[in-house]
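Late entry, evening session. Most of the bench is empty. Finally got around to the prediction I had been postponing all week. Sequence below, unchanged from the version circulated by S.P.
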Amino acid sequence: MILIIRVAVIFLFPQLTFAFGVIDVVGGEDGSKTTGQAEVWHDRTGELTIEQVGPIYLKGEFKPLNSAGSTGLQPGAFWSHFVLRNVTDKTLTLNIEYVDHQLISLDAYERDSESPVRYRHIAAMAMADAFASREISHNRFVVVVTIPALQSKDMLVKFSSHQAGFVFPAMRIWDPEKLRKTQTSEASIIMFMFGGIFLMSIIALVGAIATRDKIFLAYSVYALTKIIGWCTILGYTHQFIVTEHFHQRYMSIGGALTVFFGVVFARTFLQTRKHTPRIDKVFILMLLVAAVMLVSALFSLTGLAVLSVTIILLLYPVMSVAGIVRWRQGSTDAAVFAAAWTLLVFGLVVQALRDLGLVEHNVINYYWPAVASFVEMLGIMAAMGIKVRRLRLQKDEAEARYTEQLEHSKAELEQQVKERTQELEKAKLEAELEARTDPLTGIYNRRSFFVESGKSLKLAQRKNQPLSLLMFDLDLFKSINDTFGHTMGDEALRIFSRTIKDNLRDCDVWGRLGGEEFALVLNEDKRGTLQTAERLRKEIAGIAIMTPSGELRITASVGVAYLKNEKTIEALISKADDALYQAKNRGRDQIIEHCSA
């Protein structure tokens, strides 16, 4: 009954039903107005459709969000209802921007003006979609809404976190041009910070090369993972680099890499293994947890990934404690490190409180962790600068050593390239030969025989020349292997093959098809073919091989086929094979022509 009454009221008096969720827009909005938190409903399955959620809203089950802005770590999806009312006498086009970067997908619907219970799908965006599919090129989700003069848009928006995630069911309202300018400003600041971190990474890398000090190398890698991590988390990797097939786990992977190499750097810089072995055990635990976090991200083990992140956040302050302990032990570098890391920890704590809904979401705490990371890197670089002073006396020696090593490496590389090139050329020739020839007899193998004989067949057809094919099969070859052994059997095949080859022309194609079966293609007419076949049969019969078991003599049966109307070499082989079969049946050591020749 309540549902029926509410539908009737919406249909007859829409201006009276949304007073709680109505937002007046006048044009020129600068993002200070937000939507979405006055009427929110949690779909724990994340699978309900707009047709199912619409009636739920009409029943009055949408309630105000009872937190400072975040839903906390929850599975499924959250639905938000709000109404945008254009109080001006002109049509307004607005950009409605999701306030955070962690959302997996967003769907927006507007109510059909002809039905109070039917909604039209106006936007569908997902992290896994190609970035180019977004209507507005922005690192966060943006929905375009057009509202006619003095009219309202009744909206339902679905915020999906899939298995589990933090959702901020609010969207900032923007004039399109102001959003573009703000986005440009924000991106410029972030890129400036990324550029600064990258520059510090390069400087540290140069220091690592010049001094061979692993501290600089660890810092360089850590700085690069910072860029990768924050660029991915803030959405710029999807926008500019992995524009298609982006996956939510990339954010966790970037975070895991940043944590892992951050701990590696801290252990190296503070020398905890040597000076604070107990704290070093905690660092090793953090490395293991970061590795688990990485594996969880790779295999989409959401629960394990969340647990790993929680443990990491709880252990992060140990970094500051380690810095303070090392400072008290007399390391001035460690004091600066501790201060820089404490700033980062504070930023991460603020982010955690924001994600849990205990602190209101705003631009400052949204960007605070990234800015804190930048300042942390500056502080650590300053701490490392103290170490640089000790390098000045070693500069000339390091440069000379580097130059000498560079020249040596160049000469060594050139020699290696030369030797490797020669090896590759030799290997290439050997591979080509091996691919074309039978390893036992050294003549064409089956594949090469078909290629070469196919060329001869096409040439004969094109020039209307005679062509014949002879199939050879060593008689009673199994008994040769049984009597004299397989080694002598192989030797018999080699001598047989060489005997035939020595009596052929360069244009003849001679190959082993398999076992004791061989084939020969001749550009001869019938008379010439039979003469050659008989000559070869006699040469074979004259072969005598002395073995420990006595003299080994061999004979061969020959099947002959002549090219007539055959289109392929396989057809010609089939004819010759039939003739060979007859030669075997008629007593072996003889030549039989195919009957249709």
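Two things to note before I forget:
Residues 1-19 have pLDDT under 50 and may be disordered.
Residues 191-390 form one domain.
Will write this up properly tomorrow.
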